[in-house]
Structures are given as C-alpha cells and as structure tokens.
Amino acid sequence: MYLVTFRLDPGEYNEEFHELNDAIQAAAEDTDGYRGKRTWHTPESEEVLVAYYWESLDALETFGAYAEHKEAKQRWTEWYDAYEVTVTEVIESYGSGFGDDADPPA
C-alpha cells in the first residue's frame, strides 16, 4: 500500500477551483486501487494535510495521468500559497480503537 500526503497552505478558492477539485476527487474514486483519504486541519494555522491511500504505484500513476490532475498541478499557484507532496510505501499499519474510521480506509 502507498500513502500520499498532500500538505497545503490554502490561498483563495473560487468556483473554478471547486469544480476542478470535485473532478479530481471523482477521478481518484474511479481509479482502481484508490482506497480513500483522510483530511486534517491544523488548529493554529490554515495548513491542511490530506492523506490518500493507494493499493499500488500503478494505481497512483494511473490517477496522476488524469487531465484534471495535471491541470491542477500546473495551476497550483492560483489556489495555494504553498504545497508539499510525499509518497510513502506503507510497510505495516496497525492499531486499535478507531472502529470504522481505522486507517487505511476500506
């Protein structure tokens, strides 16, 4: 499994951003191998962290080829003040107490 963390400092969002963002999320959900996402907001700043779960690098690469995703990557300065993406291979994941919200998402 692979975990992609998208850390961002949001700027100004407009209607075009929301339409593109919705299209990207739909594309992710339509990609075989997409397992879900979790989002956290930093209470002391505007910073947001989104963790996306993927079954394989092939699935992630398929998603990365979507036109909407490529467009958003080219236009990031219109909507974000800063961003960082980290791709990590998950070797093991375990825990207890989160019930249906346990990572990774089903």
TrEMBL record:
The keyword Coiled coil does not apply. GO terms for molecular function: monooxygenase activity. Keywords: Monooxygenase, Oxidoreductase. Its EC number is 1.14.-.-. InterPro entries: Dimeric_a/b-barrel, Monooxy_af470. The keyword Cell membrane does not apply. This is Antibiotic biosynthesis monooxygenase family protein. It comes from Halorubrum yunnanense.
